[in-house]
Structure formats: structure tokens, C-alpha cells
Amino acid sequence: MIEPVIVVVILLALIAIGAPIFLALGAAGLTGLYMARGSMAFFFGPTSLFGQLNSFELLALPLFVLMGNLLAATPVGKNLFHAAVVWLQWLRGGLAIATVGASTVFGAVSGVSIAGVAAVGSIAIPEMLQRGYSRSLAAGSVVSSGALAMLIPPSVPLIIYGAVSNVSVADLFIGGIVPGLALAFALCVYIYIRALLHPEEAPLQAVVDYSWGDRFRAIGGIWHALILIAVVLGTIYSGFATPSEAAAFGALGAFVIAAVIFRSLDGKGLLKVLGSSVRISGAILLIMGCARIFGDYLNLVRVPDAISGLLVGTDLPPELILLLIMLVLVGLGMLVDAVSLIVVTTPILLPLITALGYDPLWFGIILVMNLEIAVITPPVGLNLYTLRAVAPVLKIEEIIRSVVPFVGVQFVMLMIFVLFPALTLWLPNLLR
């Protein structure tokens, strides 16, 4: 069994020298297939790539990316933050809590974490710093809450996991609701307690006496996005439309909001949005196709079965095995991007998870919760560098230090949902 070791070494070496991740996965997978099946590898490789991408449900991925990019070109992010401030400014740490609330809602219209960090962070950071908030609290609240877009539906990582694992994307969307909202609530509680214990980090300004009219007028700037979220997710959960069909409607609705209601999208802006969406979607799909080549090689030589049999045969408690898996995923997430981590680890770990008696739907949610930690931890944490780009007043070292306690909160919530799978599964089971 020296061949799998050679393949993994090739993969790691290519990544280490800076090769694109799709090239590293494809080259390593083809090498392994060639060692296992000779020249037939050049038949298996294209078949694997096409088989991964030839999926109707995968149409939802570029369409939801387009929907998020269209809404990111509107004042929706700014309006969300303003509405959250109007409703929550009376709380200690209210601006940071408002940031979490705005990021949570924006995550439900984008599905991409960096879009939420860019849209909300560019507004929230200057506002919080101007009102005397500590740089650490301001940066940490934006970076950590931006990651909620990965879990709160419609979520691009959940679509990718569904395509790789053959788990229903609609069920995954339903399963992401409770953990996503629970994590958002946990972040708010942490911010509130931190602001109470260290009031100098979140000075309580003179409370503006907003009337109920002011509050409802604030919602008037976001009602379009809220209705779009409700319609898109409602059609999926009710079974009226598939995720791909709902994503098409969502992209059309986002275009109407951007071009007609807000009038923030001209021809040049539309081309920019389309170009950005094509680049993001193309990169994700290319990684998925090449990762399927690598995964098919591992399945051909039965690496997942060997790992599953080895760990199950140790007679360790399932909870301890899960903890080890979570630690490995968190570590890998610090080095590998989210898409690659899903498509590479799922074929390896899913047989082990099912052998331990756990639901693949639950594992998908847990995997994405791991990715939420990954995108806010260096050196590959994209949210960190996105915030640095939109808020140059902050140094990257400050941003990295700011996320440490927020990572702790996320890890605690991850462990809760790992140890109590029923918390994740009760809503999907209820709606079934």
C-alpha cells in the first residue's frame, strides 16, 4: 500500500510549491489511477470529472453565487446594518451585536462568507471605531459573524457537500437553520457579556429614542431582501421547487432588486457582477471535478474503508473518534480552502461516520461548522484578508488576534452539536 502514500506526498508537495489546488488534486489523482490501472487512468479521469459536475442540483451553486453578488452590489448590506442598529442600539455592545444580526441576514441572501464580511464590514468597522469600540471587538465581531453565511441557507458549502455525498440539499438547508441561528445567538451573548465585563471596549452612547415608526422605516430598506429570502427558502422547504429552480428565481429576484428597485446596477456593473460570479463558480466547480478524480482513486484502492475499519476496530468511544476527527478538520481548515476540504475529506470520512451510526446529513452540518472556524483562522482564513481589504485602518495582526475568543465560542458550539446530534436533526425530521 505504498502507492497511496506516494499520491498523498505528490498532493502535499504540489500544494507546498504553490500549485493551484485543482491542479494538485487532479495531478495526484491521475498519478494514483495510472499506478493502479495503467493507461486506463486517462479514461477514468475525465469520466470522474464529468460525473461530478453532471448534476442538476449543482446548478444551484452558480445561481446562488450570482444572487449574492447581485445583492452585494446594492445598499442591502448598509440597510441591514442600519436596521439592526435602530433595533439593538440600546444594548451594551449593541453595534457589535447589530453587526452579527446584519451578517446573519446577509448570509441568508449571499451564501458566501467573504461577501458578508465585505458588505457589512465596510460599514460596521468605521461606525464602531467612531463610537469608541475597541478595535479587537469590532474586527472580531465582523470576521466571525461573516462566516455564518457558510451555514445559514442558502449555503454554497452545503450545496457542495450535497453534491459529493448525495444528501438532499433541501434537507441540508433545513438542517443548517438551527445551528446557524444558535451560533449567531452565542456570538451575541459573548459580545454582550464581554461588553458588560469590559465596558471600555463598548462605550454606551447616549441612547437615541427611536420611535416605532423609525424602526419600521428601517425595515423598509431591507424588506425586498427579506421577502426574497422567504420566497426562495419557502419554495425549497415546501417542496414546491428544487434548490436549483429556487436559485434561478432568487437570481432573477436579486436582479430586479438591484436594477429596478435600488437602481444600483448599470450595464457596466452587471458585466462586473457576471464576471465575478463566473470566476467564483468556475473555480469551485473545477476544484470539485478534480477532487472527484482524487477521491475516486482513494475509493479504488479502498483507503476510506481501511481508515474506517482501523478506527472502528480500536474500540474507542465514538465520541472520542469524533473529537479526533473535529481536531483534524480544524487543523486542515487552517491550511486548505473550504471547497477543497469538503470534496477531499467527505469521501474519506463519510464511510467512517456512517459506520459509527451517525447521519450523513448531520455530518454535513458539522463539517460546515468546522469550515466556519477555518475561514477565520490563519494562514488561509479568507475572511481575515477580506476585512483587511475593506477596512485598511485595521492591521492584519490586529484582525488575527481579535478572532481568538470568537474561535473559542465557535468551537464550544461545534462540540455541543457534535455531542448532541439530535439538536441538528430534529428540525429536518419534524418537517419530513
From TrEMBL:
Domain called TRAP C4-dicarboxylate transport system permease DctM subunit: residue spans: 8-423
Transmembrane segments: 6-35, 56-76, 96-125, 137-160, 172-197, 218-240, 246-265, 277-295, 320-349, 361-382, 402-427
UniProt subcellular location: Cell inner membrane
GO molecular function: transmembrane transporter activity
UniProt membrane topology term: Multi-pass membrane protein
A Gene Ontology term for the protein's cellular component: plasma membrane
Main subcellular location: membrane
InterPro entries: DctM, TRAP_DctM
Keywords per UniProt: Cell inner membrane, Cell membrane, Membrane, Transmembrane, Transmembrane helix, Transport
Purpose: Part of the tripartite ATP-independent periplasmic (TRAP) transport system.
Family: Belongs to the TRAP transporter large permease family.
Assembly, per entry: The complex comprises the extracytoplasmic solute receptor protein and the two transmembrane proteins.
Protein name: TRAP transporter large permease protein
